[in-house]
Amino acid sequence: MSTEPICLACGMQYAAARDDCPVCEDERQYVPQSGQQWTNLAALRSSGTYTPRIEEQGRGIIGVGSNPGFAIGERALLVQARSGNLLWDCAAYLDDALVAQVRDLGGITGIAISHPHYYTTMVEWAHAFDVPVYLHEADRAWVMRPDSHLHFWSGETHEIGDGMTLLRLGGHFPGGQVLHWRDGAEARGALLTGDIIQVVPDTRWVSFMYSYPNLIPLPAETVLHIAEAVQPWPFDRIYGAWWGRNVLEHANEAVRRSAERYVAALGATAVAAPAR
């Protein structure tokens, strides 16, 4: 059983024991008032607290996580693509039962993760299925457990399968990426966004932040850049980072008007620029 240390607050797994968690100490996250605490997968599995959670999110896309959620609590998404199943983002909890359920769904041929807050136990997932993990080069410094399964790409777009393209948008993190799935939403196209583009409780809208827990906004130019960067890619649906947080229709329009609302709330008049 894996005993590599995992931050109890953010879920990041480290290669070796340490006193601090740079992810939590960064202003985009936080160290809980109770202080820095650690666990590992062996302890989580033996606790009896967590069980796998697998739920369909739409045609050809399945949510993967745990009940209850652990650390930040995001859920991953299993995309049943023509070129092979892809795991988008990463839920920190993993056990033999969850691996078996994912295998029963066809397994995975690769993993791609939106940003460092969801790197969590990505190396465990990569080892369990012997698959590559696609990360943007700009966020390499946030990898806390290096491994040969990690594949870094650079630039603005990267195709990882038939109709599966990573788009580097920046914003929340310099290498923040989303996945464009051409065949998603019954071939109308879908974006899987993590919280690079965050689906909010009113799921007709999305938002964009530098820090979500600490409520630090992004500059107007960055928000407009993100909105403009996705407009050429056809998508009618967005699958966000949380259970039930999906924009089910007219998602391309939702991104555009959400960016306009955001900029107006900042009281800014901005022209989109290649800000990250």
Report on the structure:
By secondary structure, the chain is an alpha+beta fold. The chain is built from seven helices and 19 strands. Helix content is 21%, strand content 26%. The strands form five sheets. Strands 3-4-5-6-7-8-9 form a seven-stranded mixed β-sheet, covered by helices on one side. It has a six-stranded mixed β-sheet with strand order 10-11-12-13-18-19. The longest helix has 15 residues, at 251-265. It is globular, with a radius of gyration of 18 Å. The chain starts with 5 loop residues before the first strand and ends in an 11-residue tail after the last helix. The relative contact order is 0.13.
Mean pLDDT: 95
Termini gap: 39 Å
Shape verdict: globular
Name given to the CATH homologous superfamily: Ribonuclease Z/Hydroxyacylglutathione hydrolase-like
Q: Strands of the biggest beta sheet: in what spatial order? A: 3-4-5-6-7-8-9
- State the helix count: 7
Total individual domains: 1
CATH fold name, please? Metallo-beta-lactamase, Chain A
- Sheet with the most strands? 7 strands, mixed
User: Regarding CATH, which class?
Assistant: Alpha Beta
One letter per element, helices H and strands E, the order comes to EHEHEEEEHEHEEEEEHEEEEEHEEH
**CATH architect. name:** 4-Layer Sandwich
Topology, number of strands: 19
Helical coverage, percent range: 10-25%
Residue share in β-strands: 25-35%
Low-confidence stretches: 272-276
The structure class reads alpha+beta
Any idea what the radius of gyration is? 18 Å
